[in-house]
Specification:
heterodimer, A: 92 residues, Folate-binding fold, two-stranded antiparallel sheet, 6 strands, B: 200 residues, 5-stranded antiparallel β-sheet, 6 helices
Chain lengths: 92, 200
């Protein structure tokens, strides 16, 4: 079980959270102008790194806020958490 | 149904009313006290904490909205629990709902605020006494030591996989449990407390 530090509530059990996939996927400026392939890329194509990955989490059983976390996908170590709207912190 | 008319005029019954006798029996040993506080008024309040409306609301109900995560503030017969950075639960005595909603809306004065009476959503269970922490520790991952989670602290978390609002008081804890989970949580509390009751 992961211990995830919610930026509002502090460290809580993984079971209190929902996973929200890759963070910082920006909505296209002009969606109508995209080709089908570009739209599909926006919707479905995500990074799948081995190592640090910025992802979204929601503290569903607690404050119910979305936030971002930088997690190492190989070790599950969480290197940083930060609130929505804050830039991704620099992590080693 | 033939008895639907009778039901509509029936006395209201709290979600854990059926457990009163078993709660009392479990509390007889003295080390633990289980009880239900039924029908408390609960108002869900959402407002930007930096807005003038938040300040006016704090003044109107006599309790400044606590802005530190996981804290509760009390004053008079009201208690305000922090649920999120822009969300609070105002808890008051039975019957205070309509008046309280009116006061909150009046204090908001047309600003972007949400005030919803959710009194029927949850009931309140008391887990108090020397053994209260041991009982809750069976199903709650939070550190409940008074140094970390003493009076004035509250948290939304999971107890035995059921979502609860946990409020620390001077003599124990109050659990705000959703009505549909109240029976399950009451059964769970009684089950867990067996070892502390039997031992005295």
């Amino acid at each position: 079980m992961l211990l995830i530090p919610c930026p509002w509530c502090g460290p809580r059990d993984e079971a209190e959270f929902h996973y929200g996939g890759q963070a910082h996927v920006a909505y296209p400026e002009d969606p109508a102008a995209l080709s089908d392939e570009e739209w599909a890329r926006y919707l479905f194509f995500r990074d799948n790194p081995k190592g640090l990955f910025a992802e979204r989490w929601s503290h569903t059983a607690g404050c119910r806020r979305w936030f971002n976390a930088v997690r190492d996908t190989a070790t599950n170590e969480i290197h940083a958490v930060y609130r929505v709207g804050e830039p991704r912190p620099v992590t080693a | 149904m033939a008895d639907s008319a009778a039901e509509s005029t029936a006395e209201r019954r709290s979600p854990a009313a059926a457990f009163a006798a078993r709660f009392e029996a479990a509390s007889a040993g003295g080390g633990l006290r289980l009880a239900e506080i039924p029908f408390l008024t609960q108002i869900n309040l959402r407002v930007d904490p930096k807005s003038p409306a938040a300040e006016r609301i704090g003044t109107a109900i006599g309790v400044p909205l606590p802005v530190e995560p996981g804290t509760a503030a009390g004053g008079g017969d009201l208690e305000v629990l922090w649920l999120g950075p822009d969300e609070w639960l105002v808890v008051g005595p039975d019957g205070a709902g309509p008046g309280l909603v009116e006061r909150l809306i009046e204090a908001a004065d047309g600003e972007h605020v949400s005030v919803v009476d959710v009194s029927a959503q949850r009931t309140t269970l008391v887990v108090a006494g020397d053994r209260a922490r041991d009982v809750l520790a069976h199903g709650c991952a939070l550190d409940l030591h008074p140094r970390v989670f003493g009076p004035g602290r509250c948290a939304q978390t999971m107890l035995a996989r059921a979502g609860v609002v946990l409020v620390a008081g001077e003599d124990g804890f109050r659990l705000l449990v959703r009505s549909s989970f109240a029976g399950y949580v009451a059964e769970w509390l009684l089950d867990v407390s067996a070892e502390y009751v039997a031992g005295g």
